Amino acid sequence: MPHTNTASELVSPLLRVLQKQIVPWVRDKGMDNVIVAAPSWKHFQQIDAPLPEGAYVTRQKLKSKRVPFKSKNKFRGSNQLLIDALWPEDGLLSTTSPVLCFVLAGPVALPLGDYVAHCLPGHAILMPPGAPHPDGSLLCLDESRTNNGYCSMLSFSVWAEGVWCWINHTQNGKHQSSRSPRENCHVLHAQAGLYLESLAEEAVARSTEYRLHCNGLLSALIAVLVREIQQLRAFQPLSLDKIFLDTAMRAQLQEQNPIKRAQFYIAAHLHKTLSIDEVARHVYMSRAHFTRRFRQVTGRSFIEYISERRLEKAKVLLVNTNWPLRRVSAELGISPGRLRSIFLQYEQQIPAEFRRKNRE
Fold first, then answer.
1. Domain ranges in the chain?
2. 144 CB neighbour count, 10 Å cutoff
3. pLDDT digit string (tens) for 296-334?
């Protein structure tokens, strides 16, 4: 009988890379070894953050201008739904979700728009949404450093209610973005995708204690990926229907639906102004389709659902803190007047009255 690869055989090389290289790097250096990309050299120069030891950046001139992405033909079979723009003559694109790339071997020169990041093994590049990065056609070997003609990188991207992981190589003058199932898998875990997106948001916003937050998110992301792959909950991205799924796996696959992921996203972003368009884009659905499915699954309209979640969080804050109403409402991404309206609508009382009664 011909040999059939088991799930453990399919993902074991990728798992070894995570365990032997990525986990120690993240544990020892964390964000100290991560370069956060910016949309342009000008923006990158404004970021007051040291580069990892041994890394440097150089400017380069772009040959083409940014072109909004419309055609799906060029990237058939890949994550083309995430692409929002191309730089056609430069081999660059930008996506609507972040990409995190670790250098595994060899010196790497990674084009990031009108500048290049020169990195060594152990360094990582975090490319937030909108930041230009290679489309898979470029040779990323750094010819300015001593090399043996080979380099490789492990990349992560949010994709289809989870995280897509893949290894790519440059060798003998050719670039290969691996489609081997042994170096390419989809971890079906919505929270992992949320960790990666939150990591990019924190790294760009640079709020108080952002590095502490980023280190926690980076560690959580890698830990979840290792665990899910160890427990054989990782699949070939482009052929989920060809991978054997037992009953538990099928239940998990059905559970991690776009609306479930939207609920994760809403819970993590209650402190911000949320719109239907923003959340629909996050789960790759049209506004009309998302609105209809959201009501079917939750039994609430989008506005009703968010108001109820904010009400729940406001109740906890009002009872357990001495924060003034202004701060409570700011934590929920709304005005004090809007918070009062929500309480009157659902509780028939104002926030101050709710706080007094429940503390008594």
1. 7-242, 257-359
2. 12
3. 989 999 999 999 999 998 998 898 888 889 988 988 889
What is residue 137's three-state secondary structure? coil
8 Å CB contact between 31 and 210: no
Query: How far, in Å, are 5, 268, 292, 325 from residue 309 at the CA level?
Result: 45, 11, 19, 17
Q: How far apart are CA 90 and CA 66, in angstroms?
A: 10
| Residues paired with 92 in a beta bridge | 87, 134
Separation between Cα atoms, residue 254 and residue 252, nearest integer Å: 5
Q: Alpha carbon of 236 to those of 10, 77, 186: distances in Å?
A: 9, 13, 6
The CATH homologous superfamily to which domain 257-359 belongs is Homeodomain-like (1.10.10.60)
Paired tokens of 122: 């152990």
Nearest-angstrom CA–CA distance, 107 and 118: 7
CB < 8 Å & 24+ apart, contacts of 236-244: 236/10, 236/181, 236/184, 236/185, 236/186, 237/159, 237/160, 237/164, 237/184, 237/185, 237/186, 238/77, 238/179, 240/186, 243/7, 244/7
- Determine contact, residues 187/233, Cβ cutoff 8 Å: yes
Low-confidence residues of the chain: pLDDT under 70? 1-11, 70-81, 160-161, 177-182, 233-257, 360
pTM for the predicted model, two decimal places: 0.69
**332: three-class secondary structure by DSSP:** coil
Q: Tell me the H-state helices in the chain.
A: 7-17, 23-28, 41-45, 190-205, 210-230, 247-255, 258-268, 276-282, 287-298, 302-320, 325-331, 336-347, 351-359
Can you read off the two tokens belonging to residue 285? 């659905």
CA-nearest of 106, 105, 103, 82 to 94 is: 82
Strands (E) across 72-160 are located at 83-87, 92-95, 99-105, 108-111, 115-119, 124-127, 133-134, 150-158
Residue-wise pLDDT tens digits, 25-51? 999 999 999 999 999 999 999 888 889
**Which of left, alpha, beta for 54 (phi over 0: left; psi -120 to 50: alpha)?**
left
Question: Rounded to whole angstroms, how far apart are CA atoms 98 and 193?
Answer: 10
